[in-house]
Design goal:
By secondary structure, the protein is α+β, with helices and mostly antiparallel strands. Helix content is about 25%, strand content about 15%.
Length: about 100
Amino acid sequence: MRETINVPENDQFAIITEHSRENFVVDRTYLGIERSDWCVIISITLNDGRTLEQKKALYRAIADGLQREIQLRPQDVFINLVEVKKENWSFGNGEAQYAI
């Protein structure tokens, strides 16, 4: 992500969850994209301000990387970005480290 959307070094925090089939609902053909049982949903919360080109590059890099590394079909990679203002982060100590 660092190369596509300017993420600071070591700024990596992740929550990974798995869900049983009955607790994972994915439309198989939404927007004409054929999804399989292997569909993954990736949600990334980040500072606002990235360009559309940076976001598209990020989507492509993630889909290509997952296809290359674990043979996950690009059709099965669902990504959404949640953009927030910098003052909405606290990385610890009860402080707003990014607030300006």
